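Entry type: protein chain
Record version: 2
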Amino acid sequence: MGELSDRFGELMARMAKGDADLFRTVGDQNAAIRQLVEEMAPAAAIGALSESPQPLLPKDQCHPAALKARFRTAAAAHAHLEAALGPAPTKKKTWDHLSSVFANGAWPAPARSLSVAGAGRGGVSEEALAQTEARLLRRIDQLEERVIGLIEKLLSAKP
């Protein structure tokens, strides 16, 4: 009985060592892949794949004074934002509003009225739904292109 117990102990020790080696190898591979992606992908692509939107400019350049120096007019800054983020939910072009959009990396959610504008749709107009759908489809296409590009780079770099 003692010999059986010793053999079982040895088997458990080997299994624990094998598990530790396996977890270490998987962790090393994950770190190597993460490093490859960070080296090969531009920071904008990595930021786009994260859950929350990233600022469009560094924080020190998102202040109204810095934006005025960079774009000179609010219309030019607004046009730049529309090119990067798609159509704006409002045409508000104040420097404070634009600086918050540059800092947040996304258009602010439009305020909703308390009245019921359309039964069954929760007060959302067809135009607003179409704009949201277009923005989501454009965003999904961008993410898909970036992911495919990253995968192709990783596969082409493989020996």
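Comment: Residues 1-40 form one domain.
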